[in-house]
Amino acid sequence: MNASRILSEKGSEVFTIAPTMTLLDAARELTDRKVGAVVIMEDGGKPQGVFSERDLAREIAGGGASVLTEPVSGVMSRDLVTAGRDATVDELMGLMTDRRVRHILILEDGQLVGVVSIGDVVKRKIAEAEREAESLKQYIESA
């Protein structure tokens, strides 16, 4: 299982916002889209950052409700964690663990083609464990 297959199963739609959007509007976007993060895009279509629920919580905890009128560009995560379509689930999981992120941007020829979340990775790992358990069960029953 790799990033390409994950995107083909879940869809490759990427929710993006402008860097000028306020934290409040960005929070509404997360809620409306039922996602944990959105990608901030520059005018040229290149990812500039990621804004997540964690970023929102950190800012509100530090500055209270008054931060909700600030632009997302000031608080987004600029250190983008990326992988190619051929990255395996284990590689994606390792990146998430090492970099302490929950979303990885999937690039192809430098273009953003999708986002894989920790939920996507966990879902595939659970399915893999269930398949292995079923195989072992069948092996034991046939012995």
UniProtKB/TrEMBL annotation:
Pfam families: CBS (PF00571). PROSITE patterns: CBS. SUPFAM superfamilies: CBS-domain pair. The keyword Cytoplasm does not apply. It comes from the Bacteria. InterPro entries: CBS_dom, CBS_dom_sf, CBSX3_CBS_dom, Diverse_CBS-Domain. The keyword Transmembrane helix does not apply. Keywords: CBS domain. Residues 7-66, 76-131 form the CBS domain. This is CBS domain-containing protein. It comes from Marinicauda algicola.
